[in-house]
Automatic annotation (TrEMBL):
Family of the protein in this entry: Belongs to the plant dirigent protein family.
Protein name as it appears in the record: Dirigent protein
Lineage: superkingdom: Eukaryota
Keywords for the protein's UniProt record, in alphabetical order: Apoplast, Secreted, Signal
Keyword Secreted attributed: yes
Pfam families: Dirigent (PF03018)
Coiled-coil stretches: none
Annotated function: Dirigent proteins impart stereoselectivity on the phenoxy radical-coupling reaction, yielding optically active lignans from two molecules of coniferyl alcohol in the biosynthesis of lignans, flavonolignans, and alkaloids and thus plays a central role in plant secondary metabolism.
Assembly, per entry: Homodimer.
Record's signal peptide: 1-24
InterPro entries to which the protein is assigned, alphabetical: Allene_oxi_cyc_Dirigent, Dirigent
Gene3D superfamilies from the UniProt entry: Allene oxide cyclase-like
Length: 191
């Protein structure tokens, strides 16, 4: 019986092999990263960076673009939609190495607790990942600790990435209305 099963498995494999081979021939991956992808050479990276969130004043990097009729009376500012273009730095200090920008849309989407639906692209224009980007999408309950959001993809070094990010408010200055957010991102990537 065992022998039969093994024979059957080998047969199935033999039948399946030529098809896989033909597919590989058709693809003929030229680019190194694509060859590595075909060979399953996926790696995991952990990144840490800081987001400079300037929430008011002429140099604000967060701007409201729409609101609902109930936004001004809602305890959470429900329905407020803003576009952000925040500086990404290597360290919490706003004058530390500039790594890129966090660009996208944030929508207050919870009637009960302060939580936003985010659609943000981390675009790196310096450092190791210059030219690459990571896309983050999900629910962010902004007053909680260790907020987890999914990394849904990326470009450049982060092509076909997936993973998650953990974010915390590193500091918030209520007078300047200026927040510094810490992001730790765990992503898979192909070298
Ligand atoms: C805004 O940015 C400009 C140019 O960097 C700077 O000169 C100015 O002092 C800034 N204004 C405030 C209020 O921070
Ligand atoms: C929003 O408020 C304005 C002014 O009070 C009102 O005219 C409008 O009908 C409201 N819109 C909706 C969708 O409730
Ligand atoms: C990032 O890459 C671009 C394009 O290759 C290059 O022009 C630029 O100088 C790089 N920036 C840094 C800070 O290395």
């Amino acid at each position: 019986m065992e022998n039969l099963v093994i024979t059957w498995m080998l047969l199935t494999l033999a039948l399946a092999m030529p098809r896989a081979h033909v597919t590989a021939q058709i693809l003929e991956p030229q680019e190194a990263w694509f060859r590595n992808l075909c060979q399953g050479k996926e790696k995991v990276a952990q990144l840490r960076f800081y987001i400079q969130d300037a929430l008011s004043g002429p140099n604000s990097t967060v701007w409201e673009v729409a609101r609902s009729n109930i936004t001004s009376t809602s305890p959470t500012s429900f329905g407020q939609v803003s576009v952000i273009d925040d500086l990404i730095t290597a360290e919490p200090n706003p004058n530390s190495m500039k790594l890129g920008r966090a660009q996208g849309l944030i929508t207050v989407a919870d009637l009960q607790v302060p939580a936003i639906a985010m659609n943000i692209n981390f675009y790196f224009n310096a450092g190791e990942y210059n030219g690459s980007s990571l896309c983050i999408l999900g629910r962010n309950q902004i007053l909680s600790e260790n907020r987890e959001l999914p990394v849904v993809g990326g470009t450049g070094a982060f092509r076909m990435s997936r993973g998650y990010s953990i974010s915390n408010t590193y500091s918030y200055d209520p007078v300047a209305n200026y927040g510094i957010l810490e992001y730790t991102v765990y992503v898979t990537y192909v070298e």
